[in-house]
């Protein structure tokens, strides 16, 4: 396989009911907004250098798909898993999400070399936060 010169990015697009509420929620969780790509119908949330969360008002989101838009409060359209550097960082991020108006999605998961917690954002999108001891999975 040839060496890559382009660092691939991931853009996660989600439908939301209230863009301003979503902006408030994700900034309170600790993420930054990219104002170049934010407007009344869109919030652009920078998760990392390579992961961007695009939150589109439901009517705008619907213009990009021919299928019905899922109601994330009634069904799970995806599990979005974010890595964390430590168990403490898992707890801090999820605790901030819960304090900002999110709700628990499931019980914490303790698997020895992995630890995870989860939350639902105000629109019901399911986020997992996972720490994994890299030394346990390296050969």
Characterise this structure.
With 139 residues, the protein is an alpha+beta fold. It has four helices and nine strands. The chain has helices spanning 19-29, 58-62, 87-99, 134-137; strands at residues 10-16, 32-33, 42-46, 51-57, 79-83, 103-104, 109-110, 114-120, 126-132. The strands form two sheets. Strands 5, 6, 7, 8 and 9 form a five-stranded mixed sheet that branches. Strands 1-4-3-2 form a four-stranded mixed sheet. Helix 1 (19-29) packs antiparallel against helix 3 (87-99). The protein is globular, with a radius of gyration of 16 Å. The model has no long low-confidence stretch (mean pLDDT 94).
User: What quaternary form is this?
Assistant: single chain
Shape: globular
Instruction: Please tally the helical runs, counting DSSP H or I stretches of 4 or more residues.
Output: 4
**Alpha-carbon distance between the two ends:** 22 Å
> Could you report the average pLDDT, rounded to the nearest whole number?
94
Structural class: alpha+beta
**Order of secondary-structure elements:** EHEEEHEHEEEEH
Helix content: 10-25%
Strand percentage: 25-35%
Largest sheet: 5 strands, mixed
What are the low-pLDDT stretches, counting only 5+ consecutive residues below 50? Answer: none
Characteristics of this structure?
4-stranded mixed β-sheet, globular, 32% strand, single chain, 24% helix, alpha+beta, 139 residues, 5-stranded mixed β-sheet
In short:
The chain is α+β, with helices and mostly antiparallel strands and 139 residues long.
């Amino acid at each position: 396989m040839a060496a890559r010169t382009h660092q691939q990015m991931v853009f996660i697009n989600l439908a939301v009911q209230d863009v301003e509420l979503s902006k408030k929620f994700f900034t309170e969780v600790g993420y930054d907004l990219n104002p170049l790509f934010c407007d009344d119908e869109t919030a652009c949330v920078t998760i990392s250098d390579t992961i961007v969360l695009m939150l589109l008002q439901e009517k705008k989101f619907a213009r990009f798909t021919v299928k019905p838009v899922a109601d994330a409060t009634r069904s799970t359209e995806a599990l979005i898993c974010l890595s964390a550097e430590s168990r403490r960082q898992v707890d801090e991020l999820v605790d901030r999400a819960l304090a900002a108006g999110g709700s628990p999605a499931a019980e914490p998961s303790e698997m020895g070399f992995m630890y995870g917690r989860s939350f639902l954002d105000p629109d019901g999108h399911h986020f997992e936060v996972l720490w994994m001891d890299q030394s346990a999975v390296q050969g």
